[in-house]
Target: Thioredoxin
Amino acid sequence: MKIVNSNEFRNEISEGVVLVDFFATWCGPCKMLGPVLEDLGKELEGKAKIIKVDIDQSGDLADEFRISSVPTMILFKDNKIVDTMVGFLPKERIKQVIESNL
Model:
């Protein structure tokens, strides 16, 4: 799964359905969510994209999207926010949110 920085972010979310996982390397629930998102990325390949943003490396993005706890997942569709999920969630719940926006 691609970790993007502030320079790449706008281009990554500009088109299609993109789930952005705002995470931190020191966050336990973030580490648990990683494999779940890896699996989802494979299942939804060609339909939706999943990328990650390290809030410690890209603090400007964390500030812009008012990330106050991690993990926070924001779902974009063609550069617009369509849903936000906070905390560790089951794979099926995340998949449902993504698929409802395809």
Observations:
- The CA atoms of residues 30 and 60 lie 19 Å apart.
